[in-house]
# Entry
Amino acid sequence: MEIKFTKSENLKKKPEPGQKLGFGNIFTDYMLVMPYDEGKGWHDPEIKPYAPIELSPASMCLHYGQTVFEGMKAYRTADNKIQLFRPEENFKRLNQSNERLVIPQLPEELAMECLMELLKVEKDWVPSNDGESLYIRPFIFAVDPFLGVRPGNSYLFIIILSPSGAYYESGLNPVNIYVENKYVRAVRGGMGYAKTGGNYAASLIGQDEAHKQNFSQVLWLDGVEQKYIEEVGAMNIFFVIDGEVVTPMLQGSILPGITRKSAIEVCKSWGLKVSERRISIQEISDAYDAGKLQEVFGTGTAAVISPVGILKWGDKLMEINGNKIGDISQKLYDTMTGIQWGKVEDTFNWTVEVK
Ligand SMILES: *Cc1c(COP(=O)(O)O)cnc(C)c1O
# Structure
């Protein structure tokens, strides 16, 4: 499909090397916008200056939350190439989310073509300092001006780009989290596996209370019995118990992370035993008491690997590996970030160059 290009009249000043980028504050010069209309399908993709969009106040997405999104990064390698990490997995997952939210499928090759064109235009925005990257946010939402409840007939697919700073400034600092006993984020049959705003809306209250108590996140339990471990904020969760790597199995209420999937593949390639299964919080507590809980870490695009140093369950405070990052967590971090930034050979064939 031909992608229209509308030139910006005043390009922004790019961040200075060394300037703190943070996350999600700075946006590049251009965005990609492609409408969908019933009868026409996805049509007229356009790369145009990043700017506010005009929406009817009756737009369905604003009232009933019919939205989906993705998150990935573009990395600049030492030899000045720009590459993506398993982007086809993101667009595949976008369509799984679309299906759950009754949003029309977006052909994955078309989504990829849109992204590649936008990245070619915005190449110079991919930062070059250690650990920095260009965060990519594709999203879709229903725009019909209608207050009745039904799936939309009109949508917008937009990609915006945001240069973002290194997640860790000095080494991988373990985080403290607690087990959420009151609220749940998703239930069996719900939309926990979809990357949609509603799941985040459901989780904000837990995160807010955690912050008030000086914890960085909550560990969610299943929404039915509140016994089995699900995930953490925007990360999947892993445990190393007596040498075995264990993570909750995907059964509809957990987001199928691409970092999760990749970490499993890397661990298996090292000959480690990896299990995807149900894990009760009681099992974790028992493993801790038996001295067998060796490591706990989260996985997600933002941090890649985030070691958990303190895990609190009710009144019980578990200090994992002396509140220091464990060997498997560190090795996974080094390997995966190494592949992403082109410092470690990509034997899995996961990276895709933006040419
Ligand atoms: C995006 C996300 C993750 C992590 O997925 P990655 O593909 O690894 O970035 C985990 N949990 C939730 C709720 C998410 O939205």
Q: What stands out?
A: Helices lie at 60-64, 87-100, 108-122, 197-212, 258-269, 281-289, 327-340. The CA atoms of residues 308 and 319 lie 9 Å apart.
